[in-house]
Each structure stands twice: as structure tokens, then as C-alpha cells.
Amino acid sequence: MHYFKLLPLSLLMVGLYSNAHAEHISLPTISVEGIAEEETPYVIPPLSVSTPDTGDMVKRLPGANINKNGPLTSVVQYRGLFGDRVNVLIDGVRIDQAGPNRMDSPLSYLPSSRVADVSLYRGIAPVSSGIETIGGTVMANSKKAEFASGDEAELHGNATAAYAENGSTRHAGLLASIATQTHRFQVVGSVDRGDDLEFDGGKILSSKHERDTVGINYAFQKLGHELELDIEHHDTGETGTVALPMDIIYARSDNYKIKFAKALNNGGKISTRLTYQDAEHLMNNYQLRTKMSAMQRFALSDVESFGYHFTYEKDAWSFGLEGDQADHNATVYNPNNATLFLENYKDIERDRASIFAEWDGNLNNDWDLTSGIRFTRISMDAGTVSTNMGGAAAATLATNFNNSDRSQSDNLVDLSAVFTRHLTSDLDIEFGLARKQRAPSYQARYLWATMESTSGLADGNNYVGDVNLKPETAYQAELGLDWHTPKASFSPRVFYHHINDYIQGTTYASSGMMDPATMLNNMMGGGTLLQYSNVDAKLYGMDANWFVALNDTWQLEGTVSYVRGERRDTNDNLYRIAPLTARTMLSYVQTDWRVGIETEAVAAQNKISTENNESKTGGYALFNLTGLYQVSEAIKLSAGINNVFDRQYQNHLGGYNRISDNPDIAQGDRVYGLGRSAYAAVNINW
Ligand SMILES: [Cu+2]
């Protein structure tokens, strides 16, 4: 009984963007008999209809949050770890970023109008969920058509459209399919458009966005064989990223996937998957913002990657062989002098090869265990760079880099064991231990010029890399309860992460005024210069989700997330750690309509990173109204008002305004959160 699939965080919005074939959800669900324990991974249906950004759904998962660098540039944070540390899967696949600052973050590849669900492994991610899962695994899946149930071919589809007042945000998604019992063909597409967003006090310049996606998918199934082919094209147009030094002019990607699975006579199953991605990105600092001509720059970047994934599953066992190879480039140019260039990243290779074994089963009637081991080899290399920008200092840095030991490889070992003990029919206890590793990002290893291309850190500091960085090693412990009755549930988790060789910027050890990095940094404005280093860190905290049916029509539910991140080698804090956040929703539920009021209470964040020059933020509470009306089995309408009282607030994870010509937000101030926005949406299934 997948009871929780319908309940967490808003019954209110369930089904609004449900799968093309989703059946009418009969409500109230509190009469459902039999209560299951919380699902793994923990899934929520799509909730946000007011923004195009799937990050607004992900941040509703317990322990999850979003570092927002622009309206489409959401970087997943889970329990204080973010960016390259979190394994984000879109339809099961890890996507590489063409942008060295993660402007095309993985979530930007799946617009909210096409989302079927978002989920995460609470706490320790199983080793089978991916390579480099030190910060967990978070997933977003797109809507997919189903095979026909009868002998006849069937035509189905789903269309969604929404409008939000703030920024005149419009988005629409479409899925149309024709299917028999053995063949299925679907086309998907989406359109997102929006103008500059507003807060009580002005506008965020520039926070406009535009994005189109289109894809085709064919699937075949017969006698235990499954085959799927998928091609998608993504095109993000001019989109602001005020927390970063440049804005997106375009980010285009073609993603190909082929999957094959076969059920074996011995009861086992083999699955294979090949993926290919080709993405290109243009950004600049003068089209969506003003920059004096001497400082104007644009950058072209690209990534090409190939991935493979083979698994064999039988009974409780699964075995896998997988890997990927990514090739990155990024070059900076001066638009006013076509001869000038700087090769920021040149022929960067980051190749991963990995094997794993996992056992997921019942030890006896009372105990379940998920346990696995994974070995990974990561090989990285960079080409020789050149530049004619930045004078002698940059030339010296390039020469030093070209003479350095750029070819590096790391061997990683992941181990995990998560025990679940069923104490009573409605109470489970969970206990987990893991060791997880992550190799340095290509930015941390190969950033040779003093720049800010840091995988979306957005701390405003300039960085230099270090080819000799060691991998991060995390030791993780997790303890949780899962209490579930027909009328109420509560699933708290406490966790502790002990991370050795945590990669973080520390003050660059300059040899003096003639140090080439110091000289180049001074030439570029003289901001704080940090160098990626191995330090020691720990993170600990708790997160919980809960639900109470007050009576047949009223229900209350929510999540609370808290994390504390500290250095162990100094007494500093870690950078950009989500403040204590609690979401609470009170809903009134009828058979074909529902309304709710949600509060989002966020505490002040005073535990900031001195090393990163981070600034504090105050606490605030927002109120959102939501409503859903099921007109017929096929048509659902929804509407609501976010930030009803137009509260002015600054989200700690929202980054700093990098734009000099916004009269409403000073340069260097934290970007304001969105003001009031009324929205309406329609969802049609056929
Ligand atoms: Cu970019």
C-alpha cells in the first residue's frame, strides 16, 4: 500500500501534474487501510506550479534545499553538501554541465512542467545509486507514457500550462503518445518564459528566463525484453544569473539514451544503458547587465560525455559495472578585441570507471539490510593552456600549469550498510553507517588563472586550483525513526558526517607582490584569492517529515531540516549552509477540491564561513495559499498565492547580487527572495 505516495506535503497538489495515465485520486485518502513504512527512495509528487524551476520541488524534500544562482539555475543542497558532492539524476542519468559555473545545473534539464516526481534517498544513498554519492542521491523523473493495456493502439497525453503574476512567468508542457502493448512512442516538449522577477522593494535585474525542450522516446517490450531509445534537445536562452559573474546567453544540449533490459530464466535480470551528451554554452557579462567596456567578457564552453551502465540483479543481489567520460572546454574572450582570449579550461578529461555489489533484503522477520561496496577509478587530465590576456602574470601561470603534473588518478572505495528494524507494526528504527569518497572536481584541480569559475559556489571570491588535491573521504552515521499510523506519521533522522580532506578554498599562500597569481588577481580587481585545499570538516543535524489527519477533512503536515557544518582544522564554519527551515501545511480536503495554507519558516543563519567572506542573513516566515479543483477526471485546475503578505526577505542560499546597475539591490548585497505572486494552472490528461 503506497499510502505515503499520496500524502506527504500536500495532498493539495497531488495529481496536478500527474502521469498521463494517473487515475482519479479518490479522497479523502485517510480512509485508506494499511499503512506502509516510508518509501525508499522517498518520493513526492510535483508540487510547484508557480515556477518553471524543478528546484522549487526538490527543496520540499526533508533535508534538501536549493542554492539558487538564477531562476533556472538551482544547485541541489542535501544536508549541507551541494554541487559536485550531490549525485543528481535526471531520469536515472547523471548530466554533465557545459558551464564551469554550473549555470546549466542538472535540474535545469527538466522543467517543472514535465516533472512526474522528485525523490531522494534519505540519509545514506545506496552504493548502487551512483558513483560519488558523498552528499547523497537526488532524483527527478519526467512524465512518461505507458504501454497500452488492451489489444488496441491507444492515444494518450498530458498538457499543462501555468501563469504566475510575478515576472509574468509562463510555462507549458506537453506529452503525446501512441502505444500498443508492445510499442510505445511519445513526443514531449516544454516552453518556459518569464520577465524580471520582483520583490517588495524592486526588481531582480536580470532574472528573466527562457527555455525550450523537445524530445522523442520509443520503447518496446515483449517476453521479458525491454528496449528504450530517448533523444532530447534542451535550449535555454537569455537567462539571468545575478549571483554569478556572467549571465546565460544560451545553453544547448543534445542528450541521447538507449536502454535494454532482459529477464533471465534463472529469475535474474540484466540491464544496460548507454548515454551520450553534447552541450554548448555561451555566457557574458554585458548583455543582461551593464559592464564598462574594458571589463566586458564572454565565454564559450562545452562538454561532451559518454556513459555506460550494466547491471545484473538476482534476488537480493545487484552487481554493476558503469562509468562515464567527460571532456570539458571553456575559453574567455574580449568582445571589443577579437584577438584576445584566455583558455580557462582546455581539453579537460574526467573519466570514471566503477564496479559495485549490493545486497538489499531481509535478514529475518525483524531486520532489513541494504549493504554495498563500490570501487571507482577516476582519471583526470588537462590539455596545455594558452592566453594573451592578463599580461606576463597570466603567461607565467599558464606555463607553470603546463609544466605541472596534470594527469591524476584517484581510487575510491565506498562502503555502506543501512539496517532497518521493525519494532512494531507501526514503528521502525533505522541505523546506517557508510564510508563515501569523492575525487576533486575538474574546477578544483585545473583552475589555473585566478577566476570565479567554481562550479557555482557564487561566493564572489577568485580561486586557483591545485592539481595535487586528494579525494574527500566521508564517514557517515545515521539514526532514524519511522512511525506511521493511519492518522499520523513522523520520520525523524539524525546524522553525522565526518569528512577528511574536505575540499574548500583557503587563503592563497602568496610569495609576495611578484607572485604571478597575486599579480593576476590584483590586475582583475584584487578581490580575495583562495586556493582549493584539502581541509577537515564535519556536518551534523536532523531532518523530519510528519503528517497528522486532524479529522476527515483537515490535515496538517510538514518537514523540518537542520544542518550544522564546521571545519575541524580551524574553528570556521562551512560555506552556504542552509539555515533551520520548517514547512507546515494545513489543508482542507474534499473529494474534488482542496485548499491549503503553507508556512515556510526560516531561521537566521549566523554560522557563516569567514574564509569565504560569507555574510549573515536574518530569519523570516512566508505564507502561501494553494487550491486545487478537479473539474473532471481529465481536467484539474490549480491556483494560489505565494508570499501572500509580500514579505521582503533574503534567502541565505540565494547568493549575492553581482550587478552594479540595479537601483533596488546594491552590488554585493544578498539577492532578495520573490515577492507576492498569484498563479493559476491547468492540467489535462487524455
Ligand atoms: Cu556559464
Structure explained in plain terms:
The protein has 5 helices and 33 strands. With about 675 residues, the chain is mostly beta strands. It has a single domain (about 5-685), classed as TonB-dependent receptor, beta-barrel domain (Maltoporin, Chain A), CATH 2.40.170.20. The chain has a 22-stranded antiparallel beta barrel. Helix 3 crosses helix 5 (about 515-525). Bound molecules: copper (II) ion. Copper (II) ion binds near residues 281 and 283. Copper (II) ion binds next to strand 17.
Count of discrete domains: 1
Q: Which blocks of ≥5 consecutive residues have pLDDT under 50?
A: 1-34
Instruction: Look at the helices and sheets and give the structural class.
Output: mainly beta
The CATH architecture term is Beta Barrel
What share of residues is helical? Answer: under 10%
- Number of helices, counting only DSSP H or I runs of 4 residues or more: 5
Q: Distance between termini? A: 26 Å
Mind telling me the CATH class? Mainly Beta
Query: What is the CATH homology-level superfamily?
Result: TonB-dependent receptor, beta-barrel domain
Largest sheet: 22 strands, antiparallel, barrel
Radius of gyration: 25 Å
Question: Which cofactor or ligand species appear?
Answer: copper (II) ion
What's the β-strand tally? 33
Strand content: over 45%
Query: What name does CATH use for the topology?
Result: Maltoporin, Chain A
In one word, what is the shape?
globular
What's the rounded overall pLDDT mean? 93
